[in-house]
């Protein structure tokens, strides 16, 4: 929990991991198909590939449509910044050079299965959360803490859902 007491400019990170009874090659399709992600998220509502793409490739992009009770509804374009099947899949939100957030899945062979880790970093570019901080700058650390806790809980649920789907497909 590197984000306890963090400010937005600190680019706090969060992660969640699980072990899956399946090879990285069996896990990869569940990680790299971003259109499946809304099934595993209460915030992400739908995802569309851009430019006629039907799957991940380095430099590709997709639009995610999200909804949050406190933050409203919004969409963001994400750019794939790492794509090494079946090991790493990562995307930068809004701008690949200066993202509002970066998300990554890492798949590592471990004990006859796969250690799946989901990681994210907030910032460095301003995001929707920045507007809440602008309105209540004295509460920045609490705002960042609450949002990072939401991300962490969502990632715990996501890696658990991927584990369930991979293992059920065996």
TrEMBL record:
Signal peptide as annotated in the record: none
Species of origin: Amycolatopsis carbonis
SUPFAM superfamilies listed in its UniProt record: Bet v1-like
Entries under InterPro entries matching the protein: Polyketide_cyclase/dehydratase, START-like_dom_sf
Protein name: SRPBCC family protein
């Amino acid at each position: 929990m590197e984000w306890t007491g963090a400010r937005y400019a600190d680019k706090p990170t969060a992660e969640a991991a699980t072990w899956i009874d399946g090879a990285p090659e069996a896990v990869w399709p569940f990680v790299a198909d971003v259109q499946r992600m809304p099934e595993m998220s209460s915030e992400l509502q739908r995802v569309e590939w851009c430019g006629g793409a039907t799957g991940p490739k380095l430099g590709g992009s997709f639009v995610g449509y999200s909804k949050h009770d406190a933050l409203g509804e919004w969409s963001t374009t994400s750019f794939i910044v790492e794509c090494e099947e079946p090991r790493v899949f990562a995307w930068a939100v809004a701008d690949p050079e200066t993202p509002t957030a970066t998300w990554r899945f890492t798949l590592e062979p471990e004990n006859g299965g796969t250690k799946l880790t989901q990681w994210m970093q907030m910032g460095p570019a301003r995001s929707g959360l920045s507007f809440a901080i602008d309105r209540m700058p004295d509460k920045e650390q609490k705002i960042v803490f609450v949002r990072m806790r939401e991300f962490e809980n969502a990632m715990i649920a996501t890696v658990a859902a991927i584990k369930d789907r991979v293992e059920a497909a065996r």
